[in-house]
Amino acid sequence: MNERAPREFVFELRVCQWAERAWPPNETRECPVVVARQLGTQYRRWDTVVVECDPEGLERRANFGQRELDSDLLHVVRNAPAEWAWYRDALPYPGYPWRYVREAVHQAAGRDLVETRRRGNRIELRRKWAYPDWVERIVAIENKPDLDASAARSLAPQLERDVALALADEVWVATRQTGSTVEPALLEDVPIEAGILTVSPDGAGADVAWLPRSLAVDEPGTRILERPDGGPADHSAARFEYVDVDWLDRKRLEIAERAYGRGWRSYVDSMRPDCRHFRLQPERTGVLPWCDAKECAQTASECSGRCGDFEPEPPVWRTRGWPIEGGPGKAIQRLLDRRRRRVRPGLE
Known about the structure:
By secondary structure, the chain is of the alpha+beta class. It has 3 domains: 4-54 and 134-265, no CATH class; 58-127, Arc Repressor Mutant, subunit A; 271-342, no CATH class. It is 29% helix and 22% strand. It is built from 8 helices and 13 strands. Strand 6, helix 6 and strand 7 form a beta-alpha-beta unit. The chain is globular. The relative contact order is 0.15.
């Protein structure tokens, strides 16, 4: 495994911990935030996502439960009528066959998000709650603990695409503080629209080295499809396409929903906390996943059933509850879920 991967993974978790605790940097928090990691679209995935929320809207969002709402469910709950109506009359045509809409209506009813009833051969629905306008701003953060010239050259085209598309309100690069008078990140080739955040090695604090430019999320964006490589013999033109505001609005809400449902602690869902070597290592600012066998903070790709050091928990560890509620692995999952729910007001 690349030795940089564990360091970047740990740095990413520390950035998420800090953002959940202290975002926005160097300012007093005026609105609650939801922090998640590894979210985006099929074209782009961000390391850390910070969703700045309307306080009342965030609390009313809890009516729809902790689980995220995908695009099909959002189409149903956002357009569900206050009074009973046939779903084809109540919901706008989504651009795909109605049978998939009907499936989404049944799925929403199964999750207790809307009410349904059958009148003859027709499925009628009405809303239980109005879906709130809870998302105020979305901030994307790229984490590069060691932002040297090579990393900056690789990262710059991605940031330029983020700035052109304007799917997020702000784009940042988070890097590790060096203690230098001038942080090395300021000397690298990073787009001026992107902010630079320097994070202390232990993740306890962060400083702004460069303020970002607020992007025009309420205007059409530009998706860069292909661009010249910049060589002396490259005279090709860049290829791009415009993206309308409706698409941007839908994608922003879908990203915010995934952030709400998953949060940044969802790393445990792709690991093996049921391994006897897995535990949470306490730090000054929180906890990190730790492997006693390797004596290091492991990544999700390393902590799997294919790991040569993987050992299932002994069955006796799992007999403290019924049917298998005991054991350190289950306790770790419950602990992280409680902490995830704690920053989402209104959830029972």
